[in-house]
Amino acid sequence: xxxxxxxxxxxxxxxxxxxxxxxxxxxxxxxxxxxxxxxxxxxxxxxxxxxxxxxxxxxxxxxxxxxxxxxxxxxxxxxxxxxxxxxxxxxxxxxxxxxxxxxxxxxxxxxxxxxxxxxxxxxxxxxxxxxxxxxxxxxxxxxxxx
Amino acid sequence: xxxxxxxxxxxxxxxxxxxxxxxxxxxxxxxxxxxxxxxxxxxxxxxxxxxxxxxxxxxxxxxxxxxxxxxxxxxxxxxxxxxxxxxxxxxxxxxxxxxxxxxxxxxxxxxxxxxxxxxxxxxxxxxxxxxxxxxxxxxxxxxxxxxxxxxxxxxxxxxxxxxxxxxxxxxxxxxxxxxxxxxxxxxxxxxxxxxxxxxxxxxxxxxxxxxxxxxxxxxxxxxxxxxxxxxxxxxxxxxxxxxxxxxxxxxxxxxxxxxxxxxxxxxxxxxxxxxxxxxxxxxxxxxxxxxxxxxxxxxxxxxxxxxxxxxxxxxxxxxxxxxxxxxxxxxxxxxxxxxxxxxxxxxxxxxxxxxxxxxxxxxxxxxxxxxxxxxxxxxxxxxxxxxxxxxxxxxxxxxxxxxxxxxxxxxxxxxxxxxxxxxxxxxxxxxxxxxxxxxxxxxxxxxxxxxxxxxxxxxxxxxxxxxxxxxxxxxxxxxxxxxxxxxxxxxxxxxxxxxxxxxxxxxxxxxxxxxxxxxxxxxxxxxxxxxxxxxxxxxxxxxxxxxxxxxxxxxxxxxxxxxxxxxxxxxxxxxxxxxxxxxxxxxxxxxxxxxxxxxxxxxxxxxxxxxxxxxxxxxxxxxxxxxxxxxxxxxxxxxxxxxxxxxx
Lengths: 146, 648
Known about the structure:
heterodimer; A: about 150 residues; alpha/beta; Rossmann fold; 5-stranded parallel beta sheet; disordered C terminus; B: about 650 residues; alpha+beta; Beta-Lactamase; 5-stranded antiparallel beta sheet; about 45% helix; disordered N terminus
């Protein structure tokens, strides 16, 4: 059986650590695959770079990424048959209007701004995890045989 | 009298003779040998005939009839044996006779009467026609720009021909002496000089003084002017004199003399006056032309005038120089000859036509011989006036200015691009600030929290307190970053005005505050009908900050109260609270960024809120001020475009 996992695309090591911590504090024990730039994310999703079987349950995507930006990654995800239904949540520091609009235009499922206050951050991660892992019914995994 | 049968002179019955004596016509009869057989009393009277005239050969009795129509017609009547009728001037009687003669084999019956009056009237009519035609021709010549001396000579010839006078004189008025000198004369037997010292006594003086023609039919018996007696010695006996000009402003005078005593007709007098008048007008026109020419010669533009047939009537020296022709030879030459050389596509010539037909001024530019010319055309009643100006320098200057403008525009575009670039950089800077500066803060806060949670047993209270402070500082910095970003955005935001319901906005802000702070109970009052013109988002930021401050600074104040309203007197909105207030000494620091009048221990805040408010209000073209007192609350007044309150 495939092991469900979460894909986190985040270049800031501190944020990666804090996000992982927030998950664990919320007792979300799913494995978290971490990629630190957009190019890696593309390779992971569309190349043979993934050590995982199948697609992630959902993707947490930062916008400001080295090499290929988060928005470009999102655009690619939504344009490919295999990945277009993966729930993708933008998790970023920016709350620039343009980013919000562009994110939704490209098909982001949610847009969450990382709070500075860690307690708020933990709460945000809890809600996102709870929603996408538990409450939300995922689409039939047509592309699961990857 | 009967025309049907001719009376036979030789067989005149006494009763017939009686009848002939009674008719008003003159009547005589000639026998077959041309001897006078009968003559009635009227005929004797008309012909001033002697008593013993009967039986005499008629040409012997009236020798002056020889060679005249009388002789020719009588002979024609007899030889053809048919009646004749004619009008002829009788030298014998000095009058005109209308004659009817009836022949028979025995002689000729002649009826005649004096028709001088009728003939004279007819001749006067004919002369009038002649005069009018002559006047029209002369008037045209006078106003046609002919030289004055030529006109004077023509005037004298006309007077001699039309008025039938022997001598004509034209005098000039001498403005300095007030006298007259002879300008020209024709017809004197010997030259005479008019004495300028005595004009007032003369016929000319009289004409000039009164402004009316002086007419004298016989100088020998003329009582009005003694000097005429002198003239009479020069073989002239009657005259007409008229002023040239007016008695107020005489230019000269005109006099016509006949050698015999003569009663001039009104037509004669009018003709002389008219010729004088025409000469005056010609002189005035020439003077005006001379002045105009002076002006036209002095201007720097080349000037040409054409008549309605587009023939040149005048060119000034500059134009002649430009065309390299003699100005005097240009009169009457079609303008086309020059427009062709000037601009061979026909546009210039067409422009003359258009100006004339449309009766509208126009101008055009032409490049000729490497120089630019502007031609301005002005139509007038008799043609078109054209001014040609060399505008090469102006054109060059224009080109230079155009070049400068282009350069300026290029620079503006460059600056604009630089500005846009700077704005973009600023934007990406803001972006980086919001994104990158927050990440470390999150780490500081997150790991401090992690320390507190994971290493609690090893931390004493002081240690935990320090970590709390670290976290607070991080969060505060995050707030500052957000506030700064907002301030920057306000500075750049485009403002599109729409009507904003401030009452509604204010109530919304208060409701939100109450929701987030449900423990507090504050009396709030928002006046209904507060309206202004502005950007709704930004005006909401204003109210969020002002009401938010009021909310903040009334914390812990008993019976706190917040009011949002309109001051009809000063035409300002206000947000009033009964909170901590402030010291008016520092009021000028209220609206500066990062300025705080309270320590962050007392009240939290970024110190950027009021700076943002002030900037928004100013960007709307409004104003803001604050009134307060420590411990008694503060009131913020602000004015906005089209601000109005429902309950003023």
